[in-house]
Design goal:
By secondary structure, the protein is α+β, with helices and mostly antiparallel strands. Helices cover about 25% and strands about 35% of the residues. The strands form 4 sheets. It has a 7-stranded antiparallel sheet with strand order 1-8-9-10-7-6-5. Strand 12 and strand 13 form a beta hairpin. The radius of gyration is 20 Å and the shape is globular.
């Protein structure tokens, strides 16, 4: 069986130029993220399906009572994650691709967001604290013996098994407890722990399922699976997690967007 490998590094866009007042405040990041979250939900729920166009910056400024720079940061992130694209002088429009049921490789949000409106549920198979062995220490760039939180869970979408996750978090950097595993781990990390996983490197390859994977995903031994091996890094570029996810080859699809970047000497990179 042939194997197709892709290496992709994901990262947030750099924040746009902001005012001196905003630069001394911690509120802009949370505000633009909240606005991003709401517009993303509206897009997925079809609020803009009729016009396929977002509101103007002025309309969002008025609606959310925030600065233009905050709105622009939210829209830039929507563009970077493949939801929409700008046309100079006309506005920002939704891209014409099939989002539903696809894992967006531009996102660091997890299946709960990616597979919306399908209902994602979880079955925890293993949860434990373990010391890093030599291999894990090298992978996570930590000391041998460092405490890691490890879990394995089977994830379902509308009752159908879609993937098996096996993740390791450095316990001193990201606190994961058993009860968190019933929901979205990434949402917990961002909203409750206030830890930003800024980049994820994915190694994506085809694999043949073993007995455990086949039974869990309702397939046969030797059937193909889509395997994601990933490293998650925080704002400082430090590795905080390593994971391996094996997905059902018919139930998980991946979306990757491409852009032509044109460099403007006065404004930086433009889409």
């Amino acid at each position: 069986m042939s194997v197709f490998v892709i290496m992709k590094t994901l990262a947030f866009l750099s924040y746009p130029v902001i005012t001196e007042k905003d630069a001394h405040s911690n509120t802009m990041k949370s505000k633009f993220q909240d606005i991003y979250d709401q517009i993303e939900i509206d897009i997925r729920e079809g609020v803009y399906a009729g016009t396929r166009k977002l509101l103007s910056e002025d309309e969002y400024v008025s609606r959310y009572n925030v600065s233009r720079d905050t709105v622009r940061a939210a829209i830039d992130l929507l563009i970077a994650r493949g939801y929409c694209y700008p046309i100079q002088g006309k506005g920002v429009f939704l891209r014409r691709h099939k989002m539903e049921g696809a894992t967006n490789l531009e996102n660091i949000r997890g299946l709960t967001i990616d597979l919306y409106p399908r209902k994602v549920t979880n079955k925890v198979i293993e949860f434990c604290q373990i010391p890093a062995d030599e291999t894990l220490a090298q992978t996570l760039n930590c000391a041998i013996g460092e405490e890691l939180t490890h879990y394995v869970r089977l994830r379902y979408a509308d009752g159908d098994p879609v993937c098996i996750e096996s993740l390791y978090f450095i316990a001193s950097k990201v606190l994961i407890t058993r009860d968190i595993l019933d929901g979205s781990v990434y949402q917990h990390i961002r909203k409750n722990l206030k830890v930003e996983i800024m980049m994820i490197d994915h190694l994506i390859k085809a694999v043949k399922l073993n007995q455990f994977e086949a039974d869990s995903l309702e397939l046969k031994v030797g059937d193909p699976g889509l395997c994601f091996e990933n490293l998650g890094m925080d704002r400082k570029g430090e590795i905080v997690q390593f994971g391996r996810t094996v997905s059902h080859y018919e139930r998980i699809h991946c979306l990757k967007n491409g852009f032509l970047l044109i460099k403007n000497p006065f404004m930086g990179f433009l889409f």
